[in-house]
Amino acid sequence: MYKGEMGAKHRLAARMQNEASGKASAKRGLSFGPFALFKSRAFVASAIVAGCLVLSCSFLYPSAQQYYHALRDRDRLAAEYAALADRNESLEGNVEALQTDSGIEAYAHEQFGWVKEGEETASVRGLDLPEEGSTFRANIVSDSIEAPETWYSVLLDPLFGVE
């Protein structure tokens, strides 16, 4: 009964024929032409990996863009909240000062130039002294606060279209 298996000698002869035919075709200059590169396994595997990466990026880009926009909005809102907290803190300080008689007198003197009876006042001009604590902003408009710059915003803002 025939099993359809090669013996050791048959396998050796087949292997020698394959090696000889490969060397002979190389000697004769027979290659696969311009498509020889496409026959290699490494190229095919690289092409498949590159195709998968391109497809993955094209499917994930909209979600990543939406997430990045949400992240930048959160940063902007955090900066706006900090500005509002500073404004409220300044207002609370002013309210506490205006609840005392000396605070009211100081405010009337600074803002309106009022003086008590028997007091004299003088205005000195030409001194360029920085004003103390004049960081109060009357209104904070939501669009006036920019999102803070981060280490990644320089690269990702143009990529995801953040203005």
Description:
By secondary structure, this protein is mainly α. The chain has a domain at 63-112 and 139-163. It is 60% helix and 0% strand. The longest helix is centred in the middle third of the chain and has 58 residues, at 41-98. The chain is rod-shaped.
Annotation keywords:
single chain; 163 residues; mainly alpha; 4 helices; FtsL/DivIC
Q: Radius of gyration in whole Å, from Cα?
A: 40 Å
Instruction: State which percent range the strand residues make up.
Output: under 5%
How would you characterize the largest beta sheet?
none
Termini gap: 81 Å
Provide a count of the helices: 4
Provide the succession of SSEs: HHHH
Q: Bin the helical content.
A: 55-70%
Number of distinct beta strands: 0
Low-confidence segments: none
Structural class: mainly alpha
Average residue pLDDT? 82
Shape: rod-shaped
Summarize the structure.
This protein is an all-alpha fold and 163 residues long. It has four helices and no strands.
Blueprint of the fold:
Blueprint: H1 8-27, H2 41-98, H3 101-112, H4 153-160
Keywords: Coiled coil, Membrane, Transmembrane, Transmembrane helix
Coiled coil: 74-101
Pfam families: DivIC (PF04977)
